[in-house]
C-alpha cells in the first residue's frame, strides 16, 4: 500500500515536471541578449518616455518590449539601429471609428475579437490590426486609418508576430 502511494506520487511529480518544463515563456528565452549600444541609444532618442524596457531578439531584429503612453508596445530596430516599426496594443475604444465600422460591416464581424494593435512605421501609413478567431481559425486583419481592409493574414496555429515590412 505504502509502495503504491509512493509510486503514484513519484509518477505525478514526473508528469508535473515534464508539463512545466514543456511550457516556454518567450520573454524568458530572450533575457540577457547583447543589445548594441547604438540600438539602445536609438530607442532613447526616438522614445525617451519608454519604461520597463526588456529587449528581445526576433530573427535579425532587436525588439524593445516596453510601455509607451500607458500602452504595451514593441519597438523594432534593425542591426544598424534603424527604427523600423512600433506596435502598440490598443483597446477597442482606441480603434478609429472608420476601422470599427469597416470591421462591423465586414466578413469577420461575427468572429471573436482577440487583440487590437496600432502599427506605426517610418515611411508607410499607419495601420490598425484586429485579431479575430473562430474555433481553431485565427486571423489578423490589417486596416488603414480610414477603414480600408489592406490585408488578411491566417495565423491559425502559427506564430502571430507582426514583423516589419521588408523594403
TrEMBL record:
Database matches in InterPro entries: PepSY-like (IPR021533)
Keywords: Signal
A Pfam family hit: PepSY_like
Limits of the Putative beta-lactamase-inhibitor-like PepSY-like domain: 61-150
Signal peptide: 1-24
Domain of life according to the entry: Bacteria
Name assigned to this protein: Putative beta-lactamase-inhibitor-like PepSY-like domain-containing protein
Native source species: Bacteroides oleiciplenus YIT 12058
Amino acid at each position: 500500500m505504502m509502495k503504491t502511494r509512493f509510486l503514484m506520487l513519484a509518477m505525478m511529480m514526473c508528469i508535473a515536471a515534464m508539463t512545466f518544463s514543456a511550457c516556454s515563456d518567450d520573454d524568458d528565452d530572450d533575457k540577457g541578449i547583447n543589445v548594441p549600444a547604438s540600438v539602445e541609444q536609438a530607442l532613447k532618442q526616438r522614445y525617451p518616455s519608454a519604461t520597463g524596457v526588456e529587449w528581445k531578439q526576433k530573427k535579425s531584429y532587436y525588439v524593445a518590449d516596453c510601455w509607451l503612453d500607458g500602452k504595451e508596445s514593441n519597438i523594432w530596430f534593425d542591426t544598424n539601429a534603424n527604427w523600423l516599426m512600433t506596435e502598440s496594443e490598443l483597446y477597442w475604444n482606441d480603434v478609429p471609428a472608420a476601422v470599427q465600422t469597416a470591421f462591423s460591416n465586414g466578413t469577420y464581424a461575427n468572429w471573436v475579437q482577440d487583440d487590437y494593435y496600432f502599427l506605426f512605421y517610418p515611411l508607410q501609413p499607419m495601420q490598425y490590426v484586429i485579431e479575430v478567431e473562430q474555433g481553431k481559425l485565427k486571423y489578423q486583419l490589417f486596416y488603414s486609418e480610414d477603414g480600408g481592409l489592406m490585408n488578411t493574414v491566417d495565423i491559425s496555429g502559427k506564430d502571430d508576430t507582426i514583423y516589419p515590412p521588408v523594403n
